[in-house]
Amino acid sequence: MGWFKKHSYPPFWNEYISSFDNHSEKELHHIRFVVFDTETTGLNPKSDRILSIGTIAIINNTIIISDQLEVYLKQDTFNAETVKIHGLLKAGKLEKVTEEAAIMEFLKHIKNAVLVAHHAAFDIAMVNACLKRMGLPNLKNKVVDSGFVYQNTLNSANPNLHFSLDDLSKQFNIPQHDRHTASGDAYITAVLFLKLIALLRHQKANLKLDDLIIPKKRIGLL
Amino acid sequence: MNTIALRISDFLKQYPPFNMLQQDQLLAISGAVEVIYVEPENFVFKTTEDVKSVFYVVREGAIGLYREDTQNLVDECDEGDIFGLRALIRQGNYKLTAKALEESIVYSISSDLLEEYITSNMEANKFLMKSFASNISLRPDSTWQSPPSTMSIGDFNEAESITYSKNPITCNPNTLIQHAAKTMTDNRVGSIIITDNQKPIGIITDKDLRVKIATGQVSIKASVTEIMSSPVITYLETISVAEAQIAMLEHKITHLCITKDGTPNSILTGILSEHDILVIRENNASVLVKEIKRCQTSLELQQIRIRSEALLKRYLEQNLPINHISKIISAINDNITKQVISLVQKDMPTKPPTAYAWMSMGSQGRHEQLLLTDQDNFLVFDNVQEADYETTQNYFLEFAKKITENLNTVGFEYCPANMMGSNPKWCLSLSEWQSQFKRWITHPDQDHLMLCTIFFDFAFVYGDQTLADKLTENIFDAIDSHDIFLNYLGLNALNNPPPLSFFRNFLVESSGEHKDQFDIKARAMVPLVDAARLLILSKHIASINNTTARYQKLMALEPQNKDIYEACLLSYEDLLRFRTRQGLKHKDSGRFIDLQQLSKADRLELKSSFKAIKSVQELIQTRFKLSQLM
């Protein structure tokens, strides 16, 4: 079945999928991470929509400012309540693209990178919901949740601890520029990620990607 | 859209050299930045590594630069500081190791961007030259030149832009000459512009009325177009004094039209007359100097001194080169002193018994005195019979006393250390001075060296110049026969090492009236002045007293050390400008600076000049083999 389906997918999806063909990189400092954040109309992946996506890449412990994406989406669904948080009006001045165009750009940008987000499950679910509306399968990328990585640094077994990006950026002394814009939060998350990796390295000399990724069974927990 | 790059540029633009770039250049750099997180005790680069084609800017935290091993901290970089640039330009190995002293975030910027945007920008390149002075040139194909330093006083205002009449009197082409003349008379102006749709097409001046109307050549009932000069010469409002004068001479006219785009085809916005230029000239240096010569009392001279201060402020605001400004102000001060002396001489009951020369020294002697500071001067008179010595000295002491009194009235306060010609110690015959200088040179103890640093920067002001020349010759003769003197002077020049080990906290005064303030004179300027004096004396050059001029000469004499001297020159100019601004702002000598009030950019500027001090002091130490003496 999958064989037939593959042929019915649009070229941009096939291109995205083919980026996973190559043997995936295991050494942390060779891996391309794409840290991202979405601003949304609300917290329900089914009914809410993405307003903007911001990303920034990390390679070899370095944030690459030129390797980034910042897109704003045209809205049908609009929630006046969340405007207060992210400041994105339904028809603001920013140049906006359709959801489909935004996702196409996003896939082209991330390729087979390891995605990093704070409380990643939500952002991934938002993107997957878009993909579903476009008749496409879920994202194939490996995902790192910076909230989970922080928990790892604590050596805590309590899975219910929840740390907001605000809490952590304060704790790790990260200036909060452009908080609650997708790009701003992606950048803060990227700096946080670098600091967390450095911390984990002290605890474990030979740090591997698998040490950062939430064990399968817990995916889906918000 | 790249919000993150925008934030990075917001940060970078607070600091030199990034604050000297254009917005789009800065954004291009910011968009290509790579951000590195460095843990405490971790390295950004080590001396053993190959040079990466990037340089670094500290975003947060602190990076220590170490020589050889990590014991020897050479520099400490914090927010906004640049490092790793010298190695990049030298294209060799890293000479220093960069290690994080605390948790740091560092921006790395590619060398391509450096070449494209930074070293191609004269201001920014100057800053880098100053900060990273060494025996290498940042741009081997140096395409820019140091600003010319040969401007004379007369030329000085030429760079200024002009204030002109913004409400020119106009009439249309159908106007009768009689009516135009009436309009000119009513408005008390000497010219009228004939405009068509607000565009200037011709001009009538008083001269046209005299030559063409009063002679009966044209009727007063004719239209203005009959006698107007056409077309008019038009310029943009940004025209400078020099351009305006040249245009008037070239076209043999006395009025220029200012239009919106500088051509006759756009709207007339003003008129600039020869008279406007005269008014500007009235408050310029050459006019002040002329007026000085007409002053008959020290109170009148005081007024000129006050006006020259206004001139100084204006020049600083216009950002004219500081060495030009100091030449102008020094020339005014010199002329005031000359006038004071000539007035006092007239006032003396008898003529001077023999030839004499009035000399200024210290900053006045070096022509670097911008703000009102105290007077430093001495008097030398020609040799007389021993029997006449006392009466001659008494005459000149009386004479000098009156001069210093008058200078005090003008605004040059008495020297608190009494280093003035009215002091019997500093009012001597030529041979007395010669033996005194010789004694200082042959017995260079601490006191004598201190006196040398003040007296050897002397400049002749008034009287018989041959006496001054003889003093100079004598100094070189004495130095030649005791060349160890230069080594002592060298040691003295190293007395004030740059405060390089105090980065976040500048070395400030630890006690006294100026506790916790930074002494910019003693800690930053004196070292550069001392180094220049020593090096120029060692080259047997007597005629140059001014510190920047000395460095310029040294650059020409020693091309292999050009970069060090140029860094010193630029630093000294910056420090002088900085001190003068501070002094004008706080109405004092500008010597003590409250660091709390400085912006980070100002602090970085100051810090970059310390690096120049460091390089020239290292050069002196090697050249005069001072480590053996220490």
Gyration radius of chain B, rounded: 30 Å
Tally of strands of chain B:
20
Report the portion of residues of chain B in β strands: 5-15%
Strand order of the largest sheet of chain B: 1-8-3-6
Number of domains of chain B: 4
Kindly state the percentage of residues in helix of chain A: 25-40%
CATH superfamily of chain A: Ribonuclease H-like superfamily/Ribonuclease H
Q: List SSEs of chain A in N-to-C order.
A: HHEEEHHEHEHHH
* Overall pLDDT level of chain B: 83
Architecture overview:
The complex is a heterodimer of chains A (222) and B (630). With 222 residues, chain A is an alpha/beta fold. Chain A has a single domain, classed as Ribonuclease H-like superfamily/Ribonuclease H (Nucleotidyltransferase, domain 5). Helices cover 39% and strands 17% of the residues of chain A. In chain A, helix 6 runs parallel beside helix 8. With 630 residues, chain B is an alpha+beta fold. Chain B folds into four domains: 129 residues, Jelly Rolls (Sandwich), CATH 2.60.120.10; 126 residues, CBS-domain, CATH 3.10.580.10; 198 residues, Beta Polymerase, domain 2, CATH 3.30.460.10; 142 residues. Helix content of chain B is 47%, strand content 15%. Chain B has 23 helices and 20 strands. In chain B, the strands form six sheets. Chain B has a four-stranded antiparallel sheet. In chain B, strands 2-7-4-5 form a four-stranded antiparallel sheet, with no helix packed on it. The longest helix of chain B has 26 residues. The chains are: A alpha/beta (222), B alpha+beta (630). Chains A and B meet through strand 3 and helix 8 of A and helix 1 and strand 1 of B. Strand 3 of chain A pairs antiparallel with strand 1 of chain B, so a sheet runs across the interface.
